[in-house]
Design brief:
The chain has helices at 22-35, 50-61, 110-125, 140-148; strands spanning 2-5, 11-16, 67-73, 76-85, 94-101, 130-136, 152-163, 166-176. The protein has 178 residues and is an alpha+beta fold. The chain has a single domain (2-128), classed as 3-Layer(aba) Sandwich (Aminopeptidase). 25% of the residues are buried. The model has no long low-confidence stretch (mean pLDDT 96).
Length: 178
């Protein structure tokens, strides 16, 4: 667990997700699905029930190369980051993360805090040597944040997302951990 202060002075708790967070997490996911087109899902498209979310959280908590953290303000989930990797020996050292933050908390430094937490965790894991992500090429604030934290654009994936019958390209970005 870690406490951080945002630019606006709010105190946020960043901690590992627990099975008991499943219902609140699904409520949070429903809300953010209406707030951003930068996610891989839109309203009503997440398709996970409470039991599945509990199992997902439980599975991640038992892995030494995966991380699921949430950011809370006054006991309410306001952001999350999920990093997943695989078990196969040739790729166990690398994984991809996704991050989301409630719109009311954009621009306050929470994304920096969540990703910094992941980077520190990766450095201390003894396993993770590469963090990957995908980001829409038109999501300039996110790209700026990732570059500020050391991520590099490694390639472009054309037509990676389709939203309302319009295609969007994404950048594949990565950060080497040494």
């Amino acid at each position: 667990m870690k406490q951080v202060k945002l630019k606006d002075g709010k105190t946020i708790v960043i901690r590992a997700a627990e099975k008991s967070d499943a219902a609140n997490m699904l409520e949070y996911i429903d809300k953010i699905s209406y707030e951003s087109d930068n996610l891989t899902f839109g309203p009503g498209e997440f398709g996970i029930n409470i039991e599945q979310e509990e199992e997902f959280i439980d599975n991640i908590s038992r892995q030494n190369n995966a991380l699921f953290i949430i950011a809370e303000h006054d006991g309410k989930i306001v952001g999350n980051l999920n990093f997943s990797s695989r078990k196969r020996p040739r790729i166990i050292h690398t994984g991809e993360f996704g991050i989301s933050i409630l719109k009311d908390y954009w621009g306050e430094g929470l994304g920096t805090e969540l990703i910094s937490y992941l980077i520190d965790w990766s450095k201390n894991s003894g396993i993770i040597k590469k963090i990957n992500l995908r980001v829409r090429t038109d999501n300039i604030p996110a790209i700026h944040l990732y570059k500020k934290l050391g991520f590099k654009v490694e390639g472009t994936i054309s037509r990676d997302l389709r939203i309302n019958d319009k295609f969007y390209d994404t950048f594949h970005m990565g950060l080497e951990i040494d």
